Amino acid sequence: MSHCKVPALIEAQVEMGSVNELEHKSLFRREEDVSTQAKAASLMEQGSLSPSFHEHATKSPKNSVVKSIKIVILSNKLNLLLPFGPLAILVHYMVDSKGWVFLLSLIGITPLAERLGYATEQLAFYTGPTVGGLLNATFGNVTELIISIFALKNGMIRVVQQTLLGSILSNMLLVLGCAFFCGGLVFHQKDQVFDKGIAVVNSGLLLMAVMGILFPAVLYYTHSEVHTGSSELALSRFSSCIMLIAYAAYLFFQLKSQSSSYSRLEEEANQNEEASGEDEDPEISKWEAIIWLSILTAWVSLLSGYLVDAIEGASVSWNIPIAFISVILLPIVGNAAEHAGAIMFAMKDKLDLSLGVAIGSSIQISMFVVPFCVVIGWMMGEQMDLNFQLFETAMLFITVIVVAFFLQEGTSNYFKGLMLILCYLIVAASFFVHEDPHQGLFV
Question: Member of which family (predicted)?
Answer without folding.
Answer: Belongs to the Ca(2+):cation antiporter (CaCA) (TC 2.A.19) family. Cation/proton exchanger (CAX) subfamily.
